[in-house]
Amino acid sequence: MATQRTDILTGIIIEEETRLSLRELCDACAVHVEFITELVDEGVIEPSGFDRSHWCFSGINLRRIRTAKRLQQDLGINLAGVALALDLIDEVQQLRSQLHKLPGSGHD
């Protein structure tokens, strides 16, 4: 008789409007504070707040950090390259969104 394996997936849904502290963001992305600081310095993400102890991040930064982490780990891209890649990804998404809104695009 075959045994049945059950995997349970757990997680938290974070909206773009959600505000995260630096520690919460590090925990959610499984990264060190130094990595977040480097991303801020490179312009990949932008916190609100004047100094690191008061930084607050929107939920959209979660996606950008996870993508940055994958680009670095999987492809060996440096932070400047990561920043450029993320900007290009964002631009492609904006262009696709605009294309879908055009009349006769077949995506109505």
Considering the chains and any ligands shown, give keywords for the structure.
108 residues; mainly alpha; Multidrug-efflux Transporter Regulator, Chain: A, Domain 2; two-stranded antiparallel ribbon; 4 helices; extended
Beta-strand level of the residues, as a percent range?
Answer: 5-15%
The CATH class turns out to be Mainly Alpha
- The overall strand count is 2
Distance between the termini: 51 Å
Which structural class is indicated by helix and strand composition?
A: mainly alpha
Average of pLDDT: 85
Cα-based radius of gyration, to the nearest Å: 18 Å
The overall number of domains is 1
Gross CATH architecture = Orthogonal Bundle
Tertiary shape: extended
What is the CATH topology assignment?
A: Multidrug-efflux Transporter Regulator, Chain: A, Domain 2
How are helices and strands ordered from N to C?
EHHEHH
Q: What about the largest sheet?
A: 2 strands, antiparallel
Order of neighbouring strands in the sheet with most strands: 1-2
- How much helical structure, as a percent, in the residues? 40-55%
Low-pLDDT runs of 5+ residues are: none
Helix count, DSSP H or I runs of 4 or more residues: 4
